[in-house]
Amino acid sequence: MVENALRNNPQKDHGIRFRFQAFLDSVGLVVVLVLLILFFGVKTDHFLTAATFRTIANQVPDAIVIAVGMTLVLIIGGIDLSVGSVLALSGAILGVGLTRLGWSLPVAMGVSLLVGVMCGAVNGAVVIFWNLPSFIVTLGMLEAARGGAYLIARSQTQYIGAVLDRLAVPVMFGLSVSFLFSLLIAAGAQFFLSYTAHGRHLYALGANEESARLSGIPTRRLKFAVFTFAGFLSALAALMYCARLSAANPNDAQGYELQAIAAVVIGGTSLMGGRGSVVNSVLGVLIIKVLENGLYQIGAQLPTQRLVTGAVIVAAVIIDVYRRKWERVSQK
Amino acid sequence: MRVFVKFMFFLCLATLFVSGCGNSPAPSSPENAQTSSSSTTTSKPVVALVMKSLANEFFQTMENGARAHQRAHADEYELIAVGTKDELDVNKQVQLVEQMIAQKANAIVIAPADSKTLVGVCKRAQDAGIVVVNIDNRFDSDALAERQLKIPFVGPDNRKGARLAGEYLAKHLHPGDPVAIIEGVPTTFNAQQRKLGFEDAMQAAGMQIVSSQTANWEMDRASQVVAALITEKPEIKAFLCANDSMALGAVSALRAANRLQDVYVVGFDNISAVQDLLKKGEILATVDQHADQLAVYGIEYALEMIKSGATPEDRETPVDLITAETLGTP
């Protein structure tokens, strides 16, 4: 039955060819990444140093974790615009808990994660109960969670000090616990997508929800689970974020949703659903971060950076169009 | 699975309920402020405080200061405090001023989100016989001249404040040392003034400004910019940040790069989150422009103007350097 649903969409085949395609995409992204690194290496004095890569490794964990959640949401044909606000809300609760309320670290972390899960669950529940587009529902959450963050933090930045340093301090090869953990999450999510039945069901759900449902795939439950998980990942990203900056600011992470979508799209995940890979999203995040850091090191001002980043996103999508055309041709 | 779903749904309902309860008594929302004032029929003058970005700690402090002042002088005036959602929501702020004109406020004390765009609507307010006082972000003098408008500015000299911080920093450096400036949103008056103040101090002391980049007032972006700069130009001895959030970001980047001991950071605003860092010496200095008093100065000035009917000159409010010493640490 499930295979039926998959066969309904020959262009979104999930067999060996698909995985091979994803692999080819990865190779392409790695090439782009290497070219970028070489470009900045030539253009600046100190880009090709361990310090640059430590810096990037220090900055990416929260972005990677968010991108993993976003990839899953996009694969099922949804979108989650609330990730940045949920991050800010979880961060605000962590900050206020640790400072004003005097909670212990495990309690503060637990509550903060729980709030993220709840935000995700609300997103998922509203989407499935009223069968609403996730764009609108998560847009609502974007506003609501941001408002919650301001209320809880009383619009103040909370300085949390060194309590979370364990996450952000390098443990091996200059890499932090946050970084290793974010890779572990990405690997886990990729394994789930590629090698478990429910993982494959997500692709079917994104490709054609109706036929997936008729094939006996528990579409509603899966949707709910994906949005809830995305909320959890936003809260996890909040922990990494606050550990990195030793502070929580309710204004934080505005526009994170768009940055995550950009990274995921650069990684070749389709906004229409049914197609995507977590590994490639991680590469997308790395490309954006290398680009950002390189431009900072060149000394490019913010307007230039935004121009370049915007151009890269559009270029990635245009390349994606050709890639899909080529895919279709090669399948005939 | 089904039990899990039910459990999660229950949790959601619980959250909604709890957050709903938390929301209702919020006293600072613009809507509440408006309804409480529109019903007033007393002869006390009504002063409208129009701010930007109530999400910003700075304006929150400003609003709280104004409310405390009004409570202490409840028999002298009524206060309507409103603000926009974020700092760049110019359009919304124009609407807020129009509302205040319609409500026939006696005075409008405004922290303009844009130093040019808001001039037009403030002219309409003056034409309607409303006293207008400019606080926080100074109106563009050309835009005022073009409409032959005179609006007094009551507020701190940001350039002077930044210069104070820069001069204090210079005492810890040697002439010729390379330094970098982390700017706010470059189109805003305060960001420009603070940058100029930092530059004044650094040039006077013979320091070399090797980079000046914006981090849009944001903590995370400042962290990224500083991390990249310290890698590319490891010789930098100090970062002059145009606000404290960016100073926090700079400190986190320097800590990650293990350079906190030999690189100085200065900030601006004296927010509560930097107090510990100032005491520990991780942030060398910041500048307090007394946010809680800024609106109060403007309101007092507006009340004077209502009484006297004259259009007085600009008035400068104090800015103070804050360091570990002024905080009283040994």
Keywords:
heterodimer; A: about 325 residues; mainly alpha; ABC transporter involved in vitamin B12 uptake, BtuC; two-stranded antiparallel sheet; 14 helices; about 75% helix; globular; B: about 325 residues; alpha/beta; Rossmann fold; 2 domains; 4-stranded parallel sheet; 12 strands; about 50% helix; elongated
Write a structural description.
The complex is a heterodimer of chains A (332) and B (330). Chain A has 332 residues and is an all-alpha fold. Chain A is 75% helix and 3% strand. Chain A has 14 helices and four strands. A two-stranded antiparallel sheet of chain A has the order 1-4. A two-stranded antiparallel ribbon of chain A has the order 2-3. In chain A, a hairpin with a 2-residue loop joins strand 2 and strand 3. In chain A, helix 2 (16-43) runs parallel beside helix 13 (278-298), helix 4 packs across helix 11 and helix 5 (105-129) packs antiparallel against helix 6. Chain B has 330 residues and is an alpha/beta fold. In chain B, 48% of the residues lie in helices and 17% in strands. Chain B has helices at 2-23, 30-38, 57-72, 90-102, 117-127, 141-146, 158-170, 189-204, 219-232, 244-256, 275-280, 291-308; strands at 46-51, 78-83, 107-110, 131-135, 153-156, 178-183, 208-214, 238-241, 264-266, 285-288, 315-317, 320-323. In chain B, the strands form three sheets. In chain B, strands 2-1-3-4-5-11 form a six-stranded parallel sheet, with helices on both faces. Chain B has a four-stranded parallel sheet with strand order 7-6-8-9, sandwiched between helices. In chain B, strands 10-12 form a two-stranded antiparallel sheet. In chain B, helix 3 (57-72) links the parallel strand 1 and strand 2. The model of chain B is unreliable at 16-41 (pLDDT under 50).
